Write the structure tokens for this entry.
Amino acid sequence: MNPTRRDFLHASALATLGFYILPASARGANSRIQVGCIGTNGKGRQDTLSVAEGGAAVIALCDVADPRRSDLGRRKNKKKKDGGEETILDRFPGAKLFTDYREMLTAVPGLDAVTVSTPDHHHFHASMLAMRKGKHVYTQKPIAHSVWEARRLAEVAAETKVQTQMGNQAHAGEPIRRCVELLRAGVLGRVSEVHAWTNRPIWPQGIAKWPDPVPVPQGLDWEQWIGPAPFHGYSPAIAPFNWRGFWDFGAGALGDMGCHIMDMPYWALGLTSPDSVEAVQEGGTAISAPLWSTVTYRFPTSVLGGPVKFVWYDGVSSKEGVYQHTPPPELWKADFPTPLHVFNRFDLLIVGEKGRLFFGRSRQDWVFKPETLTTNFTQPPKSLPRVPGGLGDGKGEDTGGPYVEWLNAIRTGTPALSNFTQSGPFSEVVLLGNLALRVGKRIEWDGKNLRAKNAPEAAPIVRRPYRKGWELS
């Protein structure tokens, strides 16, 4: 019996040993994973280029904006030597071009996998439809727009046995993986509190009314951009970037950065669902995320034992760039000369029974207090796999790590560590903070049944309705 192309991919991967992937130029076309990229502007452009650099063959491109029109995207295209602009089509001239990923998933033969780099409100539909067709999926964070969607994506990934990965790139880096090992080895003892912060939003939030619609630019399929969300007329105040601040399309500062910053302690402590979530905020509206927020999750237990209070802070002063809301000063003020020395350098503070850890996901010069915590501590072995090009190797977060890990998972069948089994429940937790913000009261959470026990009005946010024509059975 002749081996299938999938058999060849798997055998080739076993021969590479570990996470080593041959450069694209060193392999024949038949051995390369065939990828379609959904969303090719902004972060999508980086995802597209990175999977190609990891060795995949990009055979299809899908975007609602004509890639030849740089005025439709966030950034101007690079200039070519002939004076023209370099577009994503110049990088992949043989790729088929689509504006509707539903069509792409049906029309392209030999497609093995997709990347999903759309606004948040499309993550579920693009990922779900791809998995139902047996395609492997790399989806930007959070993997879904609602809590129910995150749960369902994790379930379907397990059912279909495709290889998945969420685009919280630092999960593949040395700083996070090493710190997970240290915390599990007991460097802080039992952890009771986690504090996480960001300077986001860097886009408008606290919006009281929808912007007035204007004519849709030529080359932009606005109907497809809206997709499953409630329809609103086009405005440059929404797309291509400011959609993040609108609840119908994005998940605010928490959804954008929480999946990066909250990741390490959630993973290290083996957290699951919180039993309650509450939030304070300023400027939040029915249509928009707030100007700033503080969200407090309470987890009943962790793998280290005992309950954990997990607090999220976002928002900075627009004039001075100073963080408006921070962990209690008694936890950090005596150790740093100014707030900027800690809040610009780190994004996490973890409090344990033995001491505290100040951590940043892109660096390894963490600070333990007291410093003697590590003096007589036996360093644990590296028990988690490492990925070439992961964040923390001095080359940036998009130099290979998460993309190589996902492509290797497709080749070998060994899941990437931010696969939907891990990142689905984690996305649920992040999105629960937005649920508390939108409902406006403390949420008593039943994680098993995805239900706010004290807030039945939260149900349409937990599982959002879809626009006609976008329903999924």
Q: What stands out?
A: The chain has 14 helices and 17 strands. Confidence is low (pLDDT under 50) at residues 1-29, 393-399. Residues 389 and 401 are 4 Å apart (CA to CA).
